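The following record pairs a protein chain with its ligand, xanthosine-5'-monophosphate.
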Amino acid sequence: MILIIDFGSQYNQLIARRVRECHVYCQIEPPHIGVDEIRTLKPEGIILSGGPSSIYEEGSPKIDKAIFDLEIPVLGICYGMHFMVNALGGTVKGAGKREYGFAELVIDQAEGLFKGVDKRTTCWMSHGDSAEKLPAGFENIGSTENTEAGAIFHREKKFYGVQFHPEVEHTSEGRTMLRNFLSDICGCEQTWTMKSFAQDAIARIRETVKDKKVILGLSGGVDSSVTALLIHKAVGKHLTCIFVDNGLLRKNEGEKLEKVLKQHLDINIRFVNAEDQFLTPLAGVTDPEKKRKIIGKVFMDVFEAEAQKIEDAEFLAQGTLYPDIIESVSAFGGPTAVIKSHHNVGGLPEKMKLKLVEPLKYLFKDEVRALGEEIGLEDELVWRQPFPGPGLAIRIIGEITKERLSVLREVDAVLLEEIRKSGYYKKLWQSFAVLLPIKSVGIMGDQRTYENIAAIRAVTSTDAMTADWARLPYELLGGISNRIINEVRGVNRVVYDISSKPPSTIEWE
Ligand code: XMP
C-alpha cells in the first residue's frame, strides 16, 4: 500500500491512477493525517504530492515531520520535494520566473528511481520554487537547464525528490520512474487487482455488517448496482434495495431495470411507485433550483418512509466514489473537504441513526466498471451512462407535465437506440435529449405545424468535471433528427448542442 499525501496538486488523482496501474493499492490522505494513523495504514512508501503553495508562505500545507522517522521510502514531487528539503534542514529558493512546460532532464545516476531511464529524458515542469541547499546526506541525481536540483536522493533512507511531475503523460518515462519507486525502492508486490479488491471488500462488508440489515437506494446506475451486488455477495438477504420510481425516468426504465435485476440477481428489491408524490408538487414549477429542491425533499421522504418499514436496519449503503471524497487542499485556506452528497440521501444516516457502508469509496469510475465486470454484473448495467437523480425534470426546460414527459421519453428512446446502434454509446460519457420550452413552425405533408424543439446533447468526459461536445458523424445526427421528427408526435425540429463544460454544464438545468 502506498500513501499519497495531498498538498493540493491538480495532478493528485493522476498519481493515484498511475500507482494503481502498477497493481499497487494506494490511498490519498490530507496532510493533517497523524503519524499514528499512518502507522496503522502500514504503507510501504509515501508520495508527497505537488501543490500550488510556496513552502515559506504562511499557511502552506504541512505534514508532521515525524513521517521521515518511520523508515519508509518517500518520494516528494515538486512542492512535496520542497517540503522534504525544508523539513530535513535544507533550503528552498523562489525562482525568478516560473518554469512551466517541457524540459530535458539530464540524469547523473541511472539507478534507483532512474533505473532503465534514458540519460537524457523529457520531463514536465510546473513550478516557481526549487531546492537550493540540500539537506545532509542528499545527492543531486538529475538537472535541467533551469533547475540544478531536478532530482535528489538520500541513498540510505531511500528519500527521493523530483522537481518535475512523473505522473503526467508529458514526462515520457514517468511510468518507469514510478514503477521503480513502487517495486524496487518500496518493495511493493504488484498484486492489487479487481479480483483481490472484490474479495477484500466482500470480507470487510461481512465483518462490518455481521447479521444486521443493510438498506441501499438503488438508482439503476453503475455505482449503486455494483454496490448492491457486492453487498449481496457479502450478506445475501440481509440487504434490501429500495428503488424509487419518481415518474421522471426514461421510457420503460423502471420495468427494464426490475427485469434485469430480478432475472439475474436474487436480491431483495422494493420498487416504490411515487410518480404522483413527485409530479404534484412539481406542477407549475419552472425554476431549475426549485425543481431540484422539491425532488430532493420528496425523495428523502419517500425513501425514509420505505426504509422505516425494514425492521432492524442498521446500515445504509451508498455508492460513493473516490473523487467525491478526496479532500483537497486549497492554495491558502488550508484543507477543505469537497464532498458531493450522493444519491440525494445526504441527511438520512443521521436522521435514521444508520451507519454508512461505502465499499466503492476508494475507486474511480472506470475501476467501478472493472469491478462490476469482475463480480459478474450484467453488461447493460456496467456500461450505463450516468443519469442524474432529478431525471427528466432537469431536461424539460420549463414546466413539467405528463404530456411533456411523454414527448421527451419518446425522443430520448429514439436517440439512445440510434446511439447504441452506431457503436457510440460506450464512447460517450452521456448522450440525451432536452425538451425546450419554445415552439417553432414546420411543414409536414402540406400542413403547417407549430411544435416543440428537442435539443440533443452528447459529451465526452472522464469525470464530468470538464466535458466536450462529441463530434458525432453528420450521418448519425441526420439519422437521429429524421427519426425523431418522423416518429415522435409533437416535435418538428431538432438541434445539436455544441457547448463544452466549462463554461456550459452537461445538463441544461
Ligand atoms: P453538470 O450538469 O453539473 O453535471 O455538468 C455533471 C454530472 O452530474 C450529473 N448530475 C447529477 N447527478 N444528481 C445526480 O446524481 C443530480 O442532481 C445531478 N445533476 C447533474 C450529470 O448528469 C453529469 O453526469
